[in-house]
Amino acid sequence: MATTTAKPNIQIDDLVREMTTEEHTAYKAQQTANAAQKAEAEAKVAARESALAKLAALGLTADEIAAL
Amino acid sequence: MATTTPNYGWPVPTSTDYVKDGAVAIEALGDAIDATVFGLGTSGLTLVSATTVGSAVASVTISGAFSSTYDNYKVTYTGGTTSASNQNLYVQLGATTTGYYSIRSGIRYTAAAFDFVDSNNGSNWTPSGCIDTNPNLNFDILQPNMARITMFDSSWQSATGIAFAAGYQNSTTQFTAFTFTPDTGTFTGGTVRVYGYKKS
Prior knowledge:
The complex is a heterodimer.
Chain A: E1 9-12, E2 15-18, H1 21-57, H2 62-66
Antiparallel strand pairs in A: 1-2
Chain B: E1 3-4, E2 11-12, H1 22-39, E3 45-52, E4 57-62, E5 72-78, E6 81-82, E7 88-93, E8 100-108, E9 113-122, E10 125-131, E11 134-142, E12 150-157, E13 161-169, E14 178-182, E15 187-188, E16 191-197
Antiparallel strand pairs in B: 1-2, 3-16, 4-14, 5-11, 5-16, 6-15, 7-10, 7-14, 8-9, 8-13, 10-11, 11-12, 12-13
């Protein structure tokens, strides 16, 4: 028995309709790109926070860290 | 004997004035009101569109948002919910999927600063996010319908901190529409409002 995969709805002005197959393909690709971008940005922030914590552990004061 | 109103000083008759002078009194009052109203400044922001978001939609497009009537606009989306928590909100202009640049700079409630390069010649801007499942889109967009580079700036609220974001779209495309989406899932409810900044 054939099955169909429901596609999310989108809204254009006051019209709500299901995505076309092309729109759904683009939507999934965009979601993947967004997730990668978000993960990369958050990894950089985490690395920075980790570095700052290590500097504090070495004995640098908050003012000294801020001056770097 | 005629007197005047307490705020604008419009002439009005008193109870002892002659009825036969009523028409002249009304004319004088009308002229005074006309002069006052004509001189009042109009609002700097004009509502261009208000769109109610439906149920469980993965993206929302406002197709007639921008025109030559205004150079600059303000966009808000409030009152809605997202199906997943703490989403970023992404914005694309028209059908353009390249040339977006945006940076976010802020501070977490734990006092840690953060700076994100959200888009470096990417496919969208990231002007805002959500506090749990409460999306908050609030950005100014400059000259989207002019044959010039389009720019934006926004305030950014999330459950972990606040930020300000800004950026541009590197083309001279004259946009009329924009679309916004969350990371994953859908929006339900709320209103998207587009305002135009008065030119002069």
